[in-house]
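User: quick one, fold this
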Amino acid sequence: MLERLLKPNYTKFLVAPIVKSVLIPRKVTPNTVTFFGVLFGLIAGFTIAFHQPFLGIITLLLSGYADTLDGQLATLTKQQTDLGCIYDIVSDRIVEIAIIFGLYFYAPNTRHLYTMLMIASILVCITCFLVVSLFKDQNESAKEKSFLYSEGLIERAEAFIFFIAMITFPQYFKFLALVFSLLVILTAALHIYFFSAYKNVKY
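Assistant:
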């Protein structure tokens, strides 16, 4: 939801200039940037677990930045591939799981149920999104094949905001985790709702 509002200016001022500058060597591929995004995400998970909130937030933000940088690099250098798209989607899930594991190990005796709810909600949401996209793809001609993208209440930007809030305010973790899980489930329901509305459109 926030990405639609913020992404154009974010990309224009913070991502595109880096891609076009000499700061990224020409031999660096989008998949390499994706790898570093995953690496930063894994480091963030470890630092959160070991009660290092500042390092956790910094490495989480670096992971998120790499996640936007790889796509822009692929677009501007014409290196977009289906495999790169797969890497990008899988890497997002790896980072999310790493952060949730970090939040769990921060206080495993009191956070086990809440982190399980977070993982379960993400699993349901991504399943709804991919299955809806699959069925839409099968019902279109080869020329028109594409993902049916529907905006949700919780997307990448919102998830990172929740993660940062959970890291910064551990005393409110349970409340934030419950709200996060609820919004992710509502996002899954929206994917199904928009698909239902799409199927009823007459062309």
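User: anything notable?
Assistant: Residues 120 and 181 are 8 Å apart (CA to CA).
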